[in-house]
């Protein structure tokens, strides 16, 4: 492994825990992403100096996140793994998987609370706060759905706008005072 790839693999390992993955999984994914040809489990194990059983478990986890693709080489019985070549596809997969694992269950829990009749003022206040959280998360979910369906070029253009969007909204407010999004 070259020094640059090794450095990035180690960094991804450290960042893995901050991204909801363990260190080994972060290192494995970095190696797979940064390697042009598909790798088999033995190669991953040897390059990262980790046990074959850890690699197998890590590969199952990465497959469950839709972050790697399985392939076979004619005449070779081993399974080979690669990451999507398109980083936008990786980002979309991560967004969708995090949504399924974190956001959707939270929305369900919030909806369940909103269906309950409050028993007292304290629960009524809590439900108002839950409604605000639900509405915000729901709005973000709708927005991420829109991003998922946009072309890479449109998403990139949107991201490049950055603070320009805020300026555009400020200009709209100056041009159309008193108008809200609901009108």
Structural commentary:
- Residues 19-78 form the HTH marR-type domain.
- There is one protein chain.
- The longest helix is centred in the middle third of the chain and has 29 residues, at 87-115.
- The chain has two domains: 3-82, Arc Repressor Mutant, subunit A, CATH 1.10.10.10; 87-175, no CATH class.
- Helix 1 runs antiparallel to helix 2 (23-34), helix 2 packs across helix 4 (52-64) and helix 5 (87-115) packs antiparallel against helix 6 (121-149).
- 70% of the residues lie in helices and 5% in strands.
- Strands 1-3-2 form a three-stranded antiparallel beta sheet.
- It has eight helices and three strands; from the N terminus they run H-H-E-H-H-E-E-H-H-H-H.
- With 183 residues, the protein is mainly α.
- Strand 2 (69-72) and strand 3 form a beta hairpin.
- The chain has helices at residues 3-16, 23-34, 41-48, 52-64, 87-115, 121-149, 152-161, 163-175; strands spanning 39-40, 69-72, 79-82.
Output the keywords.
DNA-binding transcription factor activity, 183 residues, 3 strands, Arc Repressor Mutant, subunit A, single chain, extended, mainly alpha, 2 domains, 70% helix, three-stranded antiparallel sheet, HTH-type transcriptional regulator, 8 helices
